[in-house]
Amino acid sequence: MQKNPVQCQFVAALDSIVGKWKPMILYHLLQGEPLRFNELRRLLPDITQRMLTLHLRELEEEELVKRVIYPQIPPKVEYSITEYGKSLSPILESLHQWGAAHVERKRLKEAKNEQTETD
Amino acid sequence: MQKNPVQCQFVAALDSIVGKWKPMILYHLLQGEPLRFNELRRLLPDITQRMLTLHLRELEEEELVKRVIYPQIPPKVEYSITEYGKSLSPILESLHQWGAAHVERKRLKEAKNEQTETD
DNA sequence: TGGTATAGTATGAAAAAAGGTACTGTAACG
DNA sequence: CGTTACAGTACCTTTTTTCATACTATACCA
Q: Does B108 touch chain A (CB under 8 A)?
């Protein structure tokens, strides 16, 4: 935690969102349906078991995600978004939209550059 | 850049914001006044020259920040937020607010824990 | 003449994040 | 009887990010 209170708030918020896979995990869980460990794995094709576990544990620790173990064999564990986690929804939505516009902007710019290069 | 388009959008947005000092740099520049390199350094007491340079270059590359060099000696360089950079303002504002609430929430929880421990 | 301020760059080290592979136990399926 | 699915853990390596320190050139001030 930083000393500077303003930074501290950014850091606290970003820690919850940042991590190579966290936004996607939250995004999928925000769809509403609880998801099992391997369902999430299939939704995030390139994630390793290790990274999925680590990120889920962090999200759980911050009470953004809830983990429910069904004592069965083979095991069943369901992850779902918490009420508190839902409060992140507008932020993720804004990020998603801004990101889409940003990608499009870059794409257009590159297209323009290629255009002038072939002139 | 990821293949998954949804992730890609999050990544694009977060790349612009994330970095240990980026939100703070943007935050200060969003106050409106252009700032010189060393003014920013003084506002971010713990940043190294190297990190400030690197982050400013990245922000410049994404056209979120504008860099103006005044050919003087000793040198004078002014950094300011671009119009495009201003479009990040609502996101940073949301992050800032959510972060503040998150910090407060944790604080209360810890206080509660200490309370029950001494019971 | 020596110190200060400006805006950096260069180099190497340390820390943090992410990835890769192998392994666990049990049940159901074929 | 071998394979698959489940939800992980253990261990080690690689990549990325950040940090620390020294260095540059020039002008001004005392």
A: no
